[in-house]
Protein 1
Amino acid sequence: MTSPCPIINRRLIITHHPSPMIKVVTTLIERVTHSPEETILLGREIAALLRPPCLVLLEGDLGAGKTTLVKGIVAGLGVAGEEEVTSPSFTLVHEYGSGAKVFHADLYRIEGARDLATLGLEDLSSQAATVLVEWGEKLGDNAPIPCVKIRMEHLGRDDRRILIEKVDA
Ligand code: ADP
Ligand code: MG
């Protein structure tokens, strides 16, 4: 059984917004995990940082571990068990929870802005929901401002580098 390791390499960055009244605080967390179980545990930690409405964009190649991390986030939010979370690559969006809703989308098969419009991501984001989007980079300039951006990288074998950028405006 892997024990959760504490968040390391945590940095607080305060950037200056064009308006002097607004400070944007970005928390950067970088972690390397060595097994799917460890990534799921990290997902549970991330869940504790999320306050809906919240859009989470997950970026990274096939097999980088996006769906695995989402299992931990969804389980950590208490809306489903990790084994109930599967890739929405064919259905495009899965929905969890009855009160506080969690949507899990996968844009892998999305081509172009028209396809994207059929997903209704703006509607999802406007509810008091948590919206987790795999292949979030496909949103390009259409992306509503995410509260968390997660980049995942396959380092080889079971090692994954996970960079979490949490924006508090
Ligand atoms: P993606 O959604 O990015 O395509 P998945 O989460 O579906 O990726 O798949 C990741 C695969 O890599 C799974 O088979 C998982 O068991 C395996 N894996 C091995 N090591 C890790 C790790 N450290 N973190 C996440 N997944 C891992
Ligand atoms: Mg996936």
Protein 2
Amino acid sequence: VGVFFRPLDKIAAVIETYPRGIAGFRRYQELLATEPEIADSPDAVAAPPLRGAIRFEGVSFAYDDGRPTLHDIDLAVRPGETLAFVGPSGAGKTTLLALVPRFYDPTAGRITIDGLPLAAMTIQSLRRQIGIVSQDVFLFGGTLRENIAYGRLGATEAEIVRAAKQAQLGPMIAALPEGLDTVVGERGVMLSGGQKQRVAIARVFLKNPPILILDEATSALDTETEREIQSALDALAVGRTTLIIAHRLATIRHADRIVVMEAGRITEIGSHGELAGSGGRYARLNAAV
Ligand code: ATP
């Protein structure tokens, strides 16, 4: 994990709006420049406010090298549901979720949200309704306030403060002499991995999207940090359709359903209770933990 290219980090970059002229913007541009462009279809319209019923219908996908990565995926996600995607490295979890914000388009089949094909919506109106928290959080050289406000340009001070609290950043900000005015990054205070993740969570609280994609950290965090991030993420997921690439057992057990993927296919799907008793791969993995 994390050894090779991780599309979700790039999606997270693509999906947020870029304040122009801020330090670090260039890096984003470079990141974006490496990715294929997906254009709006000529008759695309702005998506209405989405409830988040996501359907994958016979979705297959191959990267440019032509190697098939996803095979004929059928999956219906209920609005507000939390799904945990598990499976070995390379199974296609990241790739599948990368199709939702149209970072790539399926090579066959289609994806709909609330019955509307993704291809019928403008990419901007779609991505505005998807929040992403990936493993690598990008902070630009600026204040904490600016870094959080990046979740939704034009947010008020009160909204920024509330998002910071919701993301469990309150105590950290209170402990900094300059609070939200603290400059972070290379020229300022270096944040820990866990603190950076909470900044990313605060951005998504501010954005308030109906759909959430989470790439759970695989790196070891101390118990305290993990608990703080977990409770912030749990709060974030409430009332949103949430798709998680899950690595932690607690996340997996608490998901409404678990989707087991192997070699580009869904091999099992069900609640923890259902799968644990099914005698399948999940049951074996679960027994081994
Ligand atoms: P992990 O848990 O390690 O992140 P994953 O289940 O998320 O794994 P993906 O990252 O979706 O799996 O990878 C699925 C397959 O697609 C792998 O064989 C991977 O090498 C390949 N792949 C991923 N990104 C690209 C890319 N940009 N170009 C070509 N192949 C890619």
